[in-house]
Amino acid sequence: MTEPASPDEPAMPDPPPAEPAAVTPSPQPPVLWPVVRTLLSLLRRHGLRVYLFAVVIALSTAAIAIVLAMAQYGCVYSGIADKLPMYYIVMALWTVVTAVLGPLVGGYYLAVHQLLVGEKAGVRTLAAGYRSGRLFSRLAIVSGVLAASSLALYDLWSWLPWNFCWEYFSNIVTPGSPLDEMLGSIPQLGWLIGEFHFAVRTLIYLPILWALLEVIVACKSWPAALAGSARLAWRHKRLALVMLAVLVALSFESWVHALLPRQRDYLEGYTAFAYSLAGWLILGGNALITCAVTAMKAAALVVVYREMRKNDGAVPPPEIA
Q1: Distance (Å, whole) CA 265 – CA 242
Q2: How far apart are CA 143 and CA 180, in angstroms?
Q3: Domain boundaries, position 281
Q4: pLDDT tens, 93-149?
Q5: CB neighbours of residue 223 within 10 Å
Q6: In total, how many domains does the chain have?
Q7: How far apart are CA 285 and CA 4, in angstroms?
Q8: Is residue 208 part of a domain?
Q9: Does the residue 305 lie in any domain?
Q10: In this structure, is residue 30 part of a structural domain?
Q11: Which residue in 2, 179, 225, 245 has a CA-CA distance of 20 to 30 Å to 141?
Protein backbone atom coordinates (compact mmCIF):
# COMPACT_ATOMS: atom_id res chain seq x y z
CA MET A 1 0.00 0.00 0.00
CA THR A 2 1.16 3.54 -0.77
CA GLU A 3 1.66 5.78 2.28
CA PRO A 4 -0.99 8.53 2.52
CA ALA A 5 0.14 12.10 1.88
CA SER A 6 -1.68 13.29 5.07
CA PRO A 7 -3.70 11.65 7.82
CA ASP A 8 -6.96 12.87 6.20
CA GLU A 9 -6.21 11.36 2.76
CA PRO A 10 -6.92 7.63 2.17
CA ALA A 11 -4.11 5.39 1.17
CA MET A 12 -3.84 4.72 -2.58
CA PRO A 13 -3.70 1.07 -3.66
CA ASP A 14 -0.55 -0.24 -5.27
CA PRO A 15 -0.64 -0.44 -9.11
CA PRO A 16 -1.30 -3.93 -10.45
CA PRO A 17 1.81 -5.83 -11.47
CA ALA A 18 2.66 -5.60 -15.12
CA GLU A 19 1.81 -8.70 -17.13
CA PRO A 20 4.82 -10.53 -18.49
CA ALA A 21 5.37 -10.01 -22.17
CA ALA A 22 4.34 -12.90 -24.31
CA VAL A 23 7.35 -14.98 -25.25
CA THR A 24 7.47 -15.68 -28.96
CA PRO A 25 8.90 -19.14 -29.60
CA SER A 26 12.03 -18.98 -31.65
CA PRO A 27 11.61 -20.48 -35.09
CA GLN A 28 13.11 -23.90 -35.64
CA PRO A 29 16.23 -23.80 -37.81
CA PRO A 30 15.81 -25.33 -41.26
CA VAL A 31 16.82 -28.95 -41.51
CA LEU A 32 16.24 -30.12 -45.06
CA TRP A 33 18.11 -27.44 -46.99
CA PRO A 34 21.45 -27.61 -45.06
CA VAL A 35 21.49 -31.39 -45.47
CA VAL A 36 20.68 -31.20 -49.18
CA ARG A 37 23.24 -28.45 -49.72
CA THR A 38 25.98 -30.40 -47.95
CA LEU A 39 25.04 -33.59 -49.79
CA LEU A 40 25.15 -31.86 -53.18
CA SER A 41 28.48 -30.25 -52.31
CA LEU A 42 29.95 -33.62 -51.31
CA LEU A 43 28.75 -35.27 -54.52
CA ARG A 44 29.98 -32.37 -56.64
CA ARG A 45 33.49 -32.47 -55.18
CA HIS A 46 33.93 -36.22 -54.58
CA GLY A 47 31.03 -37.91 -56.36
CA LEU A 48 33.23 -39.99 -58.66
CA ARG A 49 35.37 -41.30 -55.80
CA VAL A 50 32.32 -42.12 -53.68
CA TYR A 51 30.87 -43.97 -56.67
CA LEU A 52 34.08 -45.93 -57.29
CA PHE A 53 34.13 -46.92 -53.63
CA ALA A 54 30.56 -48.19 -54.09
CA VAL A 55 31.76 -50.31 -57.02
CA VAL A 56 34.37 -51.91 -54.75
CA ILE A 57 31.66 -52.64 -52.19
CA ALA A 58 29.43 -54.16 -54.89
CA LEU A 59 32.21 -56.40 -56.23
CA SER A 60 33.08 -57.56 -52.72
CA THR A 61 29.42 -58.27 -51.98
CA ALA A 62 29.10 -60.26 -55.20
CA ALA A 63 32.19 -62.32 -54.35
CA ILE A 64 30.90 -63.07 -50.85
CA ALA A 65 27.46 -63.91 -52.27
CA ILE A 66 29.14 -66.58 -54.43
CA VAL A 67 30.78 -67.99 -51.30
CA LEU A 68 27.39 -67.95 -49.58
CA ALA A 69 25.82 -69.88 -52.47
CA MET A 70 28.61 -72.45 -52.30
CA ALA A 71 28.06 -72.80 -48.55
CA GLN A 72 24.37 -73.44 -49.16
CA TYR A 73 25.15 -76.21 -51.61
CA GLY A 74 27.62 -77.63 -49.10
CA CYS A 75 24.89 -77.75 -46.46
CA VAL A 76 22.63 -79.60 -48.88
CA TYR A 77 25.20 -82.19 -49.94
CA SER A 78 26.51 -82.74 -46.41
CA GLY A 79 23.05 -83.55 -45.07
CA ILE A 80 22.83 -80.57 -42.71
CA ALA A 81 19.78 -79.30 -44.60
CA ASP A 82 17.97 -82.56 -43.78
CA LYS A 83 18.28 -81.90 -40.04
CA LEU A 84 17.69 -78.14 -40.07
CA PRO A 85 15.32 -76.14 -42.30
CA MET A 86 17.15 -74.50 -45.18
CA TYR A 87 15.57 -71.15 -44.36
CA TYR A 88 17.36 -70.95 -41.00
CA ILE A 89 20.62 -72.11 -42.57
CA VAL A 90 20.46 -69.33 -45.16
CA MET A 91 19.59 -66.74 -42.51
CA ALA A 92 22.47 -67.82 -40.29
CA LEU A 93 24.93 -67.84 -43.20
CA TRP A 94 23.78 -64.43 -44.38
CA THR A 95 24.20 -63.00 -40.88
CA VAL A 96 27.76 -64.35 -40.71
CA VAL A 97 28.57 -63.03 -44.19
CA THR A 98 27.17 -59.61 -43.31
CA ALA A 99 29.27 -59.56 -40.14
CA VAL A 100 32.42 -60.32 -42.16
CA LEU A 101 31.51 -57.70 -44.76
CA GLY A 102 30.56 -55.13 -42.11
CA PRO A 103 34.08 -53.78 -41.53
CA LEU A 104 34.36 -53.08 -45.25
CA VAL A 105 31.07 -51.15 -45.21
CA GLY A 106 32.29 -49.32 -42.10
CA GLY A 107 35.48 -48.40 -43.95
CA TYR A 108 33.35 -47.09 -46.80
CA TYR A 109 31.44 -44.85 -44.41
CA LEU A 110 34.72 -43.68 -42.90
CA ALA A 111 36.08 -42.83 -46.34
CA VAL A 112 32.98 -40.80 -47.21
CA HIS A 113 33.20 -39.05 -43.85
CA GLN A 114 36.83 -38.12 -44.39
CA LEU A 115 35.99 -36.73 -47.82
CA LEU A 116 33.18 -34.71 -46.24
CA VAL A 117 35.50 -33.10 -43.67
CA GLY A 118 38.23 -32.43 -46.23
CA GLU A 119 40.53 -35.34 -45.40
CA LYS A 120 42.09 -37.69 -47.94
CA ALA A 121 40.56 -41.13 -48.42
CA GLY A 122 41.59 -44.01 -50.63
CA VAL A 123 41.36 -47.75 -50.97
CA ARG A 124 43.37 -48.19 -47.76
CA THR A 125 40.64 -46.32 -45.90
CA LEU A 126 38.12 -48.93 -47.07
CA ALA A 127 40.18 -51.59 -45.31
CA ALA A 128 40.45 -49.59 -42.07
CA GLY A 129 38.02 -51.93 -40.31
CA TYR A 130 40.39 -54.87 -40.78
CA ARG A 131 43.51 -53.25 -39.33
CA SER A 132 42.95 -54.28 -35.72
CA GLY A 133 41.14 -57.17 -34.13
CA ARG A 134 39.28 -54.93 -31.70
CA LEU A 135 37.87 -52.65 -34.39
CA PHE A 136 37.05 -55.63 -36.60
CA SER A 137 35.15 -57.37 -33.81
CA ARG A 138 33.18 -54.21 -32.98
CA LEU A 139 32.17 -53.63 -36.59
CA ALA A 140 31.40 -57.32 -37.12
CA ILE A 141 29.16 -57.48 -34.05
CA VAL A 142 27.29 -54.32 -35.01
CA SER A 143 26.87 -55.56 -38.60
CA GLY A 144 25.62 -58.92 -37.33
CA VAL A 145 23.12 -57.18 -35.06
CA LEU A 146 21.92 -55.02 -37.95
CA ALA A 147 21.53 -58.02 -40.25
CA ALA A 148 19.79 -60.15 -37.64
CA SER A 149 17.43 -57.30 -36.73
CA SER A 150 16.55 -56.69 -40.36
CA LEU A 151 15.91 -60.38 -41.02
CA ALA A 152 13.86 -60.80 -37.84
CA LEU A 153 11.76 -57.74 -38.64
CA TYR A 154 11.19 -58.94 -42.20
CA ASP A 155 10.20 -62.39 -40.93
CA LEU A 156 7.84 -61.07 -38.24
CA TRP A 157 6.31 -58.53 -40.58
CA SER A 158 4.05 -61.08 -42.29
CA TRP A 159 2.56 -62.04 -38.91
CA LEU A 160 1.25 -58.55 -38.23
CA PRO A 161 -2.53 -58.33 -38.75
CA TRP A 162 -2.33 -55.01 -40.61
CA ASN A 163 0.15 -56.25 -43.20
CA PHE A 164 -1.96 -55.87 -46.35
CA CYS A 165 0.71 -57.07 -48.72
CA TRP A 166 -0.15 -58.46 -52.13
CA GLU A 167 0.45 -62.02 -50.92
CA TYR A 168 -2.69 -61.64 -48.76
CA PHE A 169 -4.64 -59.75 -51.38
CA SER A 170 -6.69 -62.79 -52.46
CA ASN A 171 -7.74 -63.38 -48.83
CA ILE A 172 -8.92 -59.79 -48.38
CA VAL A 173 -10.56 -58.89 -51.69
CA THR A 174 -12.85 -61.24 -53.61
CA PRO A 175 -11.50 -61.73 -57.15
CA GLY A 176 -13.75 -60.07 -59.71
CA SER A 177 -15.53 -57.92 -57.14
CA PRO A 178 -16.01 -54.16 -57.69
CA LEU A 179 -13.32 -53.46 -55.09
CA ASP A 180 -10.94 -55.78 -56.94
CA GLU A 181 -11.61 -54.02 -60.22
CA MET A 182 -11.21 -50.59 -58.63
CA LEU A 183 -7.88 -51.47 -57.03
CA GLY A 184 -6.70 -53.15 -60.21
CA SER A 185 -7.36 -49.98 -62.19
CA ILE A 186 -4.90 -47.96 -60.07
CA PRO A 187 -1.53 -47.94 -61.91
CA GLN A 188 1.53 -49.20 -60.01
CA LEU A 189 -0.51 -49.81 -56.85
CA GLY A 190 1.47 -52.93 -56.06
CA TRP A 191 4.75 -51.00 -56.04
CA LEU A 192 3.24 -48.24 -53.90
CA ILE A 193 1.99 -50.73 -51.33
CA GLY A 194 5.41 -52.35 -51.26
CA GLU A 195 7.09 -48.98 -50.77
CA PHE A 196 4.70 -48.17 -47.93
CA HIS A 197 5.67 -51.30 -46.05
CA PHE A 198 9.34 -50.63 -46.79
CA ALA A 199 8.99 -47.15 -45.29
CA VAL A 200 7.37 -48.46 -42.11
CA ARG A 201 10.01 -51.16 -41.67
CA THR A 202 12.77 -48.61 -42.29
CA LEU A 203 11.25 -46.28 -39.71
CA ILE A 204 11.45 -49.09 -37.12
CA TYR A 205 15.00 -49.92 -38.24
CA LEU A 206 16.14 -46.28 -38.33
CA PRO A 207 17.43 -45.93 -34.71
CA ILE A 208 20.30 -48.36 -35.34
CA LEU A 209 21.23 -47.08 -38.79
CA TRP A 210 24.20 -44.98 -37.65
CA ALA A 211 25.77 -47.63 -35.42
CA LEU A 212 28.62 -48.44 -37.82
CA LEU A 213 29.53 -44.77 -37.98
CA GLU A 214 29.45 -44.56 -34.19
CA VAL A 215 32.04 -47.36 -34.09
CA ILE A 216 34.45 -46.38 -36.83
CA VAL A 217 34.13 -42.57 -36.70
CA ALA A 218 33.30 -41.83 -33.07
CA CYS A 219 35.47 -44.76 -31.82
CA LYS A 220 32.82 -46.29 -29.54
CA SER A 221 32.40 -49.85 -28.36
CA TRP A 222 29.61 -51.83 -29.96
CA PRO A 223 27.10 -51.48 -27.07
CA ALA A 224 27.77 -47.74 -26.85
CA ALA A 225 27.50 -47.47 -30.64
CA LEU A 226 24.07 -49.12 -30.74
CA ALA A 227 22.85 -47.00 -27.83
CA GLY A 228 24.39 -43.85 -29.30
CA SER A 229 22.74 -44.44 -32.66
CA ALA A 230 19.34 -44.78 -31.00
CA ARG A 231 19.94 -41.58 -28.99
CA LEU A 232 20.90 -39.66 -32.12
CA ALA A 233 17.73 -40.74 -33.91
CA TRP A 234 15.61 -39.82 -30.88
CA ARG A 235 17.22 -36.42 -30.26
CA HIS A 236 17.22 -35.39 -33.90
CA LYS A 237 13.91 -36.74 -35.13
CA ARG A 238 13.66 -34.30 -38.02
CA LEU A 239 17.07 -35.29 -39.34
CA ALA A 240 16.15 -38.95 -38.94
CA LEU A 241 12.99 -38.33 -40.97
CA VAL A 242 15.10 -36.67 -43.66
CA MET A 243 17.17 -39.85 -43.85
CA LEU A 244 13.98 -41.90 -43.96
CA ALA A 245 12.77 -39.83 -46.93
CA VAL A 246 16.09 -40.41 -48.72
CA LEU A 247 15.90 -44.17 -48.18
CA VAL A 248 12.31 -44.33 -49.40
CA ALA A 249 13.21 -42.29 -52.48
CA LEU A 250 16.19 -44.56 -53.21
CA SER A 251 13.98 -47.64 -52.82
CA PHE A 252 12.30 -46.67 -56.11
CA GLU A 253 15.43 -47.80 -57.96
CA SER A 254 13.34 -50.64 -59.43
CA TRP A 255 11.58 -48.01 -61.52
CA VAL A 256 14.94 -46.91 -62.93
CA HIS A 257 15.90 -50.53 -63.65
CA ALA A 258 12.62 -50.90 -65.53
CA LEU A 259 13.78 -48.21 -67.99
CA LEU A 260 16.54 -50.51 -69.26
CA PRO A 261 15.71 -52.66 -72.28
CA ARG A 262 14.73 -56.20 -71.46
CA GLN A 263 17.10 -58.94 -72.48
CA ARG A 264 14.46 -60.94 -74.34
CA ASP A 265 13.90 -57.97 -76.66
CA TYR A 266 17.27 -58.82 -78.24
CA LEU A 267 16.42 -62.46 -78.87
CA GLU A 268 15.28 -61.96 -82.46
CA GLY A 269 17.49 -60.55 -85.18
CA TYR A 270 20.81 -60.97 -83.35
CA THR A 271 23.46 -63.66 -83.44
CA ALA A 272 24.25 -65.58 -80.28
CA PHE A 273 27.32 -63.40 -79.68
CA ALA A 274 25.42 -60.15 -80.12
CA TYR A 275 22.63 -61.40 -77.88
CA SER A 276 25.16 -62.31 -75.21
CA LEU A 277 26.82 -58.90 -75.56
CA ALA A 278 23.46 -57.15 -75.21
CA GLY A 279 22.79 -59.20 -72.11
CA TRP A 280 26.09 -58.13 -70.59
CA LEU A 281 25.34 -54.49 -71.41
CA ILE A 282 21.98 -54.73 -69.67
CA LEU A 283 23.61 -56.43 -66.69
CA GLY A 284 26.20 -53.65 -66.57
CA GLY A 285 23.47 -51.01 -66.65
CA ASN A 286 21.74 -52.61 -63.69
CA ALA A 287 25.05 -52.74 -61.82
CA LEU A 288 25.71 -49.05 -62.50
CA ILE A 289 22.29 -48.11 -61.12
CA THR A 290 22.77 -50.27 -58.02
CA CYS A 291 26.19 -48.71 -57.32
CA ALA A 292 24.73 -45.22 -57.75
CA VAL A 293 22.03 -46.00 -55.19
CA THR A 294 24.66 -47.39 -52.80
CA ALA A 295 26.76 -44.24 -53.17
CA MET A 296 23.77 -41.95 -52.59
CA LYS A 297 22.73 -43.88 -49.48
CA ALA A 298 26.24 -43.78 -48.00
CA ALA A 299 26.65 -40.07 -48.72
CA ALA A 300 23.26 -39.20 -47.19
CA LEU A 301 23.93 -41.40 -44.16
CA VAL A 302 27.26 -39.69 -43.47
CA VAL A 303 25.92 -36.17 -44.08
CA VAL A 304 22.95 -36.67 -41.74
CA TYR A 305 25.21 -38.25 -39.12
CA ARG A 306 27.62 -35.31 -39.32
CA GLU A 307 24.72 -32.87 -38.94
CA MET A 308 23.44 -34.76 -35.90
CA ARG A 309 26.83 -34.65 -34.23
CA LYS A 310 27.16 -30.94 -34.99
CA ASN A 311 23.81 -30.23 -33.35
CA ASP A 312 24.99 -32.17 -30.30
CA GLY A 313 27.99 -29.86 -30.10
CA ALA A 314 30.45 -32.72 -30.47
CA VAL A 315 31.95 -33.04 -33.93
CA PRO A 316 33.42 -36.52 -34.37
CA PRO A 317 37.11 -36.85 -35.16
CA PRO A 318 37.90 -37.22 -38.85
CA GLU A 319 40.12 -40.26 -38.32
CA ILE A 320 40.22 -43.33 -36.14
CA ALA A 321 41.79 -42.73 -32.77
Answers
A1: 39
A2: 42
A3: 47-175+185-311
A4: 778 888 888 899 999 999 999 999 989 888 889 999 998 899 999 999 999 888 888
A5: 11
A6: 1
A7: 94
A8: yes
A9: yes
A10: no
A11: 245
